[in-house]
Structure formats: structure tokens, C-alpha cells
Design a protein that fits this description.
CATH class of the largest domain in chain B: Alpha Beta
Oligomer: heterodimer
Distance between the termini of chain A: 35 Å
Shape of chain A: flat
Number of helices of chain B: 8
Distance between the termini of chain B: 24 Å
Structural class of chain B: alpha/beta
Number of domains of chain B: 2
Number of helices of chain A: 10
Structural class of chain A: mainly alpha
Strand content of chain B: 15-25%
Largest sheet of chain A: 2 strands, antiparallel
Strand order of the largest sheet of chain B: 5-6-7-3-8-9
Shape of chain B: globular
Number of strands of chain A: 2
Strand order of the largest sheet of chain A: 1-2
Order of helices and strands of chain B: EEEHEEHHHEHEHEEHH
CATH architecture of chain A: Orthogonal Bundle
Chain lengths: 284, 260
């Protein structure tokens, strides 16, 4: 090292390479998060550990929060008599239907609004108004219109899903580089090919971001509609448990919601990684 | 060949081949600023014209007018170009979400789009990289893909807006050779916008100097001085063009009497 430079910008590091060969290299300060690792389970596991420890030491009163093993036992009982599967199936059906219809409507509205000035004038305003109104505030009106059956529940979820999908897809679409539009003109793409080759792939990152918000939103809306007006579903099961003071079933319901949320987010992220493999980002 | 600046300002030699491009009295302005001020230009079929000028002289505006990319710009004049026109931009402008092959085939009609795109990629020396994403290629390779994309549709006119401006000097020399080979094989008329005098001399049949929206000089490039940089003809043409651009060691060139 130079005597003049007492503090080198890049410090050489001595690394022992696998083959035993010398590997001395200067390393710039790393600013990215590093290589991708499968560590998503670490945080939830730590939380579970903390919960178990507090319950085991008596720090946590079972009347406040049931012990993890009680919840597991409750799950076993409810599965044995079929109630858990039954309620889970109906909840998943509601969330799934709402998610699919809301995503479709949101994406189509974003395309119409992003590709034509007329579409934007007609669509963007109403969606922004919908965004300003909390979805749950619409429930009284929806009940008056559609009663308390499945239509109302799926519609509430649809309306909640539609907004983030629309907003993010629209933003992604509007963010497409004008240079690519010029390119499409010079290679003589038609309107349909332009949408297929440039607009849709360009808006896809925004769409997936919206979809991830939407998945979370779908579960939130589901909880609300099931706890207000339902005779089935995980939310109803929890609401019933509240009446009888069964903390273990309430906690089980929460755990199920949590697992469903994590699972669905992981699925969306998996699809996103496959669909956007052309991207080179910090996510890796 | 004339050694004096201003000695080559004869009207553009009448193109022997039928004209590919014809521009008459082209005016383009952005707001109150007139960027092109009555430009006349003809490019013969198969002719290679370099459009030389300092930044802001209007050369890109002229190219965009020929490419039909100036919908929003006000102006007047008559522009006629062939049916098939391709553009190469300074940035390679590859769609990041499409493969190299998909980018080359962009806008091609089926059924043989894939095969044609493959051939074009092989022609620019990138056979085997069809499935790569654009970000996996070097800058020079990306620009080669852009060249393949422009030539795969067999253009009658190739418009190139400083296509090698962002490349390093060595890559640029290689790209010059590649472009010459491709042009020799496909024979499109070419308009190359550049601010590099040596690049213009190395590639063009004719050099048009644009200055503040007007054509300031037109110089044919005799084939014998294009290839050898050490002839006096080469050096005097170079000095002459630099003077027309207002940067030569010689006295500032008179605004050459061209056009009317």
C-alpha cells in the first residue's frame, strides 16, 4: 500500500478461494441487499417462537391469547369434524371470485383509460372517487341492493381489488418510455400489435405490484363481509367463537388468515418472477 | 478535386439513380425557434449521405421528419420517402422485455418472420444469441441487434441518428465496417446523422453540412480518399468540412452558396 495514501478508497481483502488459490481483490462498498436467499420463513418463525415461549412461561394468560399447542389441537378437532375445511372452502371461494373479477375489471379499465383520452376522461375520475371512499363504507348500500347473500360479498371484494390493480397498472402503462412508442411507429406496428408487444409487457410490472396489494385487500374485505353478515366462512367461525369466548378458535382463524395471506402473496411473487425474468433489479 | 474551401460548392450532383428521398423547402419550428429553414435535399437510390453538423443545427429534426416522427412539430415543405424506411437510433432501443430474436422480428409479418430475423442476426454476427435478453449484451452488441432489426425489413431508406455515438472508439470502427458490409449487401439509400467528420468521410458518398437549419455545404467524397486517410485529398476535405462547421484551423468558411 502506498505510503502517501493512508486511507485507501478500496481496501484489498484477502479471501481464501475454494481451490486454495489466492484471491486478493479490492471490494467496493456493497449497497444492494446481496444475493437472493430463501429466508422468508425467518421472521414468522421468530414470532412463533416468542409466542410459544411466553405461553410456556405463563407470561401470556391463555384467556388473552391461547397457547400455540392449544390452537393446533383445536385445528385438529375442527378438521376432524369437517368444520374448518367447510368454512375455509367457502372463504377461499369468495376471496378467489372477488380477486379474479376485480383484477380483470381493474386491468381492463386501466388499459382503456391508459390508451385513449376519452377512456381516461370517463374512467379515471370515477375510479379515483371510488378510491377515496373506504370500501367498507359501501357495504350498507350493497346490502340494500343485493341482500346479504354471496353476490354482495363477492362484489365488496371485487370493488376493493379493482382499485389497486387499476392504479398500478395505469401508472405502469403511463410510465412506458415514449422512445418505445416511437420505435413501434418506425417498425410499422399496428394498434393491436403495439398493445401486445409494447403496452402489455411494459405495464406488467405495475400490474403485478397492484395484484399484490389486491391479494392482501381481498382477504381484508373477506374478513369484514364474513364478520358482518355471514352464516359460513372463517370470519363467521371466529365471530361465533367470540360469542362463546373461545379464544383458541379466534386465534386459529387469525392463523388461517395469516397463512392464506402469506401463501397467496408467495404465489403472486412466484408468478411475477417468472413473468418478469427480463428485469434486472435489486430483488435479484 | 479542389483544394480550396468553397471550391466544391457546386450544386449537388444529379443522382444518376432514381431519387429515393426528395425534400423541398422544409421548415420545422419549435415554438418561435425555427430549427429547419427551407432545406432542399435529394438522396439517390442506394446513395449514402452523411448529414454533418454541430449539436442543435437541426440534423436530428431533419431525420425525424424523414422518419415521419414529427407529428407534433409545426412546419411546412414537401417530403417524399420510399415505402420501406428503417430507423436506427443512437440508443439501441431494444424492448427490454423481449428476447434478442423477438426484438429483431418486431413488426415482421408471419410466417417466416422468425427465420428472417435469425438470418439477420447471423448477418450482424450474433447468431446463437437469439434467446438472450437485451441487458445481457454489450453496448456494441445491442447496437448490432438494432442494425439487424432495421435491415431485416429490407428498407429502401435507412435513417441512422448517430448510431455509433454511444460506443467506444474501437467498437465504433468495427461497426463502421459492419455497416459498410450491410449497406453493400442490401443497397438501401442511407442518411447517417453524425457530428464526427471522420466517420462521415469513412462512410458516405456525399456529405451534407447543416448549420443553423440551412444547408451550409455539400461535398462529394471521392472513393479513393474514403479508404486512405493519408492522402492530401482526404486531409483537405477534412479541413474543408471542419471549416464549414466553424471549428477548423482555417478561416471561418463563408456560408457556402448552395440551395436556393
Amino acid at each position: 500500500m502506498s505510503a502517501v495514501l493512508d486511507r485507501p478508497v478500496l481496501a484489498p481483502h484477502q479471501v481464501q478461494a475454494a481451490a486454495g488459490r489466492q484471491d486478493v481483490r479490492p471490494t467496493a462498498k456493497r449497497l444492494g441487499p446481496g444475493r437472493r436467499r430463501r429466508l422468508a420463513w425467518v421472521g414468522p418463525s421468530a414470532l412463533l417462537l416468542l409466542w410459544s415461549a411466553s405461553s410456556a412461561t405463563g407470561l401470556l394468560d391463555p384467556r388473552i391469547l391461547s397457547e400455540p399447542w392449544t390452537v393446533v389441537a383445536t385445528a385438529g378437532e375442527l378438521i376432524a369434524d369437517g368444520r374448518l375445511q367447510e368454512n375455509l372452502a367457502i372463504s377461499a371461494q369468495r376471496a378467489g371470485l372477488g380477486l379474479v373479477s376485480g383484477t380483470l375489471v381493474g386491468a381492463v379499465l386501466a388499459l382503456l383509460s391508459g390508451l385513449s383520452r376519452v377512456g381516461e376522461a370517463l374512467i379515471d375520475g370515477p375510479v379515483q372517487i371510488k378510491r377515496a371512499i373506504p370500501g367498507l363504507a359501501l357495504i350498507p348500500l350493497l346490502i340494500l341492493w343485493f341482500g346479504i347473500d354471496e353476490t354482495m360479498k363477492v362484489l365488496t371484494i371485487t370493488l376493493g381489488v379493482l382499485v389497486p390493480v387499476y392504479l398500478q397498472t395505469h401508472a405502469g402503462l403511463r410510465g412506458i418510455d415514449l422512445r418505445f412508442v416511437e420505435l413501434a411507429q418506425t417498425v410499422g406496428l399496428g394498434r393491436a400489435a403495439f398493445v401486445r408487444k409494447v403496452v402489455l409487457p411494459g405495464a406488467l410490472p405495475g400490474f403485478f405490484l397492484g395484484l399484490r396489494f389486491a391479494v392482501t385487500g381481498a382477504w381484508v374485505s373477506l374478513v369484514v363481509v364474513e364478520q358482518i353478515n355471514a352464516t359460513s366462512g372463517i370470519g363467521y367461525m371466529m365471530e361465533l367463537a367470540r360469542t362463546y369466548g373461545q379464544t383458541n378458535i379466534i386465534v386459529l382463524g387469525l392463523a388461517v388468515y395469516g397463512i392464506l395471506g402469506l401463501l397467496s402473496d408467495a404465489i403472486v411473487r412466484f408468478i411475477e418472477r417468472k413473468a418478469l425474468s427480463w428485469q434486472r433489479t435489486l430483488a435479484g | 478535386m479542389a483544394a480550396h474551401p468553397g471550391g466544391l460548392t457546386a450544386p449537388a450532383p444529379a443522382p444518376t439513380a432514381p431519387s429515393a428521398v426528395s425534400v423541398r423547402q422544409l421548415v420545422r419550428s419549435f415554438g418561435t425557434k425555427t430549427v429547419l429553414d427551407g432545406v432542399d435535399l435529394d438522396i439517390g437510390a442506394g446513395e449514402f449521405v452523411a448529414l454533418l453538423g454541430p449539436s442543435g443545427c437541426g440534423k436530428s429534426t431533419l431525420l425525424r421528419a424523414l422518419a415521419g416522427l414529427d407529428h407534433e412539430v409545426s412546419g411546412s415543405g414537401v417530403v417524399s420517402v420510399p415505402e420501406r424506411v428503417s430507423v436506427v437510433f443512437q440508443d439501441s432501443r431494444l424492448l427490454p422485455w423481449d428476447t434478442v430474436l423477438g426484438n429483431v422480428a418486431l413488426g415482421l409479418r408471419k410466417p417466416d418472420a422468425g427465420a428472417r430475423a435469425r438470418r439477420a442476426l447471423a448477418e450482424v454476427g450474433l447468431g446463437g444469441r437469439e434467446k438472450a435478453w437485451p441487458h445481457q449484451l454489450s453496448g456494441g452488441e445491442q447496437q448490432r441487434v438494432a442494425l439487424a432489426r432495421s435491415l431485416v425489413r429490407e428498407p429502401q431508406l435507412l435513417l441512422a441518428d448517430e448510431p455509433f455515438g454511444a460506443l467506444d472508439a474501437l467498437t465504433r470502427i468495427r461497426m463502421h465496417g459492419l455497416l459498410q458490409d450491410l449497406v453493400a449487401a442490401h443497397r438501401p439509400a442511407v442518411l447517417l446523422v453524425t457530428h464526427d467528420v471522420d466517420e462521415a468521410i469513412a462512410l458516405a458518398d456525399r456529405i451534407v453540412v447543416l448549420d443553423r437549419g440551412r444547408i451550409a455545404a455539400i461535398r462529394p467524397v471521392p472513393p479513393e480518399i474514403r479508404t486512405s486517410t493519408d492522402t492530401s485529398g482526404h486531409e483537405s476535405l477534412r479541413r474543408d468540412l471542419l471549416a464549414a462547421l466553424g471549428v477548423g484551423p482555417a478561416h471561418p468558411a463563408e456560408p457556402a452558396a448552395v440551395g436556393h
